[in-house]
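From: lab user (bench 3)
To: helpdesk
Subject: output format question, protein + C2E

Hello, I'm new to running complex predictions and I'm not sure whether the block I got back is the full result or only part of it. Here's what I submitted:
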Amino acid sequence: VKSDGRSGFHVFEDEMRSRAQDRNRLVNELRASVARGEFELHYQPICEAESLRPRSAEALVRWRHPTRGLLYPDEFIGVAEDSGLMEALGRWTLERACADAASWPAELRVAVNLSPAQFRGGLLFDSIIGVLMKTGLPPHRLELEVTESMLLQDREENLLLFRRLKDLGITFALDDFGVGYASLGSVVSFPFDKLKIDRSFTSELPGKPASRAVVASIMTLARGLDVEVTAEGVETMEQLAYLRGQGIDSVQGYLLGRPAPFGPLERARAVVGCK
Ligand code: C2E
Ligand code: CA
Ligand code: CA
Ligand code: CA
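Helpdesk reply: Thanks, we reran it on our side. This is the complete output you should expect:
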């Protein structure tokens, strides 16, 4: 409580005002950075569970902020979504990722996260075709990661978009599987190639019975649907061993490699194996 004699309400009002100002400043900085392309992609390997050979790398965006250094998506993706900047940032990300991947070994694919704004925009199909033509990346080397919440608005339209992209050879992964609120039926009616088990479950393996049950049921579901499963957030050998025992297809996490800029050295290492 402040001792300047002003009421709690005024203190609250001041706080709200300065928070709104902070946000406005962030939106303006973000707009300028999107125009100047002040972002970087870091890549994290996704490895085949038995051999630990990298099969793909997930592109994770970072903001090279003019004064605050490198910012992580949690600090700006939400703001970008709400301020209408995500479509432009998403397009930049997709193009950068495909251009990078075009110079990798041919067996290494790239996984790109899509945002709800990109889905809603209606321009996704054309912009993906454009990016593939421009970068020369073969469509089968691109995987798109989506979350369930972004599919269920305009469901029929999205299903059509999905099918058209899949016809090109692009694959789809359902991200953060298990944490959403959508009904199982409506999600699995989309022709996914892969389910990604959320880190919140992986991190509690193998000790926590509830997480073991979730993982086991995702594995059963995936076999029934004939889709692959990737576990995210694998940090320990125990987690890796447990997931291998469950028949997991691929693994991603700090144990295998942290997200990092993808330079020539990594490019060479990618052919040899994770870590
Ligand atoms: P996500 O798609 O679930 O990405 C995985 C996040 O988990 C990444 O955080 C990654 O750095 C982190 N991670 C990976 N392995 C481990 C691990 O073993 N332990 C721990 N503690 N964390 C691990 P990051 O890069 O901060 O990204 C956060 C989220 O931001 C992503 O979650 C994704 O939803 C979103 N995001 C990132 N890049 C993009 C993008 O280009 N476009 C869109 N639309 N969203 C993005
Ligand atoms: Ca992802
Ligand atoms: Ca994820
Ligand atoms: Ca996650």
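A quick orientation on your result: The CA atoms of residues 5 and 11 lie 10 Å apart. Let us know if anything else is unclear.
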